[in-house]
Amino acid sequence: MIKKDLLIINAAELVTCSGFKAKYGEEMKNIHTIKNGAVVIEGGIIKAVNTTEEILKTYNEEDFEVIDASNKCVLPGFVDSHTHFIFGGYRADEFAWRLRGDSYMDIMERGGGIQNTVKATRDASFEELYNVGFERLNDMIKLGVTTVEGKSGYGLDLDTEIKQLKVMKKLNEEHVMDLAITFLGAHSIPPEYKGKNNEYIDFIIDNVLPVVKDENLAEFCDVFCEDKVFSVEESRKLLLKAKEMGFKLKLHADEIVTLGGSELAAEVGAISADHLLHASDEGIKAMAAKKVISTLLPCTAFCLKEPYARAREMIDSGCGVALASDFNPGSCFTYSIPLVFAVAAIYMKMSMEEAITALTINGAAAVGRADSIGSIDPGKKGDIVILKYPSYNFIPYNTGINIVEKVIKDGNVVVNI
Ligand code: NIG
Ligand code: FE
C-alpha cells in the first residue's frame, strides 16, 4: 500500500506557535491558537494550516490518512535543547548523598560527580553507548520531543569525546529523532590535567576541536563556565577559537555562582546561555541586548534544591527564554518534559503560553533551527504532538504526567498511545 500524506482535522485547540525566529520578551506569550484547526502534511513537510472548514474547501479527506483530533490539543513537537543523554553508568548513590546534605560541588571536589561518569563513559563501548542512547531517545519521543540537543563532555580525552560524538551522529542517522550535536570537551578538568586548566584548554583547541571540525561531528561548542571549573578567561579563550573555526557557541553559565557567564555569552555572540540560576541583572540585560537565548533548566534546580532561574525578570527584560531538561546522570537524571513544564509554570512565574514558546520555537532557535522546526507553519517539518485533552492547560494541571497521545515525526505517526 502506498503511504498517504497526513491530514489532521477538528483539533479543539491547534497551537501553531507560528514564527520563524525566536520570540523575545512580550512576544513569548503569542502562541497563536486556532479553534477547530486542521493541518496538512505532505512529504513530511507542513503544507497548510487553518480551520478545518477552510482546509476542507481545498483538500479532500479521501486523499489522506486522516487523524480526527476532536477534543484534543495539537502542538508543535517539543525541542529539548539541552541534554547530556550519552553517558556510561549511573550516579544514584550521589543522589542519595545529596538528599542527606552533601552539595553537588562537595561531591565533585571529592572526585565524584562528572569524573565518575567520565570513568564509566571511557570504559563503555561504542555499542553500549549507542544502545542506551537509542532507548533514551525512544522514551523522549513518547513525551512529545521531536528534536534533542546532545552534548559530549564525559570523555575529556580525544578518543572518548570523539566516541560520544560519533554515537550521536549515528543515532541521528538511524533513530527517527532529530539531534543537534554539541562538543562539550570543556565540561570538567580530567584527572590527567588536574590544576592545569590552561593546558587542558590548549589541548582541546589544538588536538580535539580540529578533529571534531574535520569530521563534522558537532555544530556547537559549549563550556562549563563556573567557579572551580573553567573561569571566564579560560572559557572566552576556548569559545573565541571555536567561533573562528565555525562552531556556534553555547555556555553553561552562572549555574552555581554568579561568575559572569551570561555577560560572556553576550560578548562572544553565543546562540544560548544555559542554566542561569545566578545570572546577574547586568547578565540578563546583556543577553536581551545581544539576543542570546536564555535556556532555563527547571528540573536541575529542582533536583539540586537550588533557587530557580529568574525567568520572569528575564522575559520582562526582553530575553528570549527556552526551557529544556538538562537530562544527565548527575544533577538531573530526568528528561520529563511534563515536569519541566509544571515547574516553570508553578514556580518560575512563566505563563503557560510562555512555557510553550520556550519548549517549541525558542528551543528550536537555541539549536539554530527556528526556520525548520518549532512551529506549525507551512514549510516546516511535520513534527507534531497531539495531547489526549482539549487544551494545553492540562499539561501542568495533570502535573508530571505524560498526556501525549500521538507524536508525528516528519509526517509519520511514530507514537500512538
Ligand atoms: O548541566 N553543570 C554541568 N553539567 C551538567 C551536570 C553534569 C553532571 O553532573 O554529570 C549540568 O547540570
Ligand atoms: Fe547541562
Automatic annotation (TrEMBL):
Pathway(s) the chain acts in: Amino-acid degradation; L-histidine degradation into L-glutamate; N-formimidoyl-L-glutamate from L-histidine: step 3/3
Would you tell me the protein name for this molecule?
Imidazolonepropionase
| Originating gene | hutI
Residues recorded as binding Zn(2+), renumbered to this chain, are 82, 84, 252, 326
Q: What cellular component terms from Gene Ontology apply here?
A: cytoplasm
Q: What note does UniProt attach to the cofactor annotation?
A: Binds 1 zinc or iron ion per subunit.
Keyword Iron appears in the UniProt entry = yes
The entry assigns this protein to a family as follows: Belongs to the metallo-dependent hydrolases superfamily. HutI family.
HAMAP family, A to Z: HutI
Binding positions (4-imidazolone-5-propanoate)? 91, 154, 187, 255, 331
| Natural source organism | Clostridium estertheticum subsp. estertheticum
Name the UniProt key words of this record, in alphabetical order: Cytoplasm, Histidine metabolism, Hydrolase, Iron, Metal-binding, Zinc
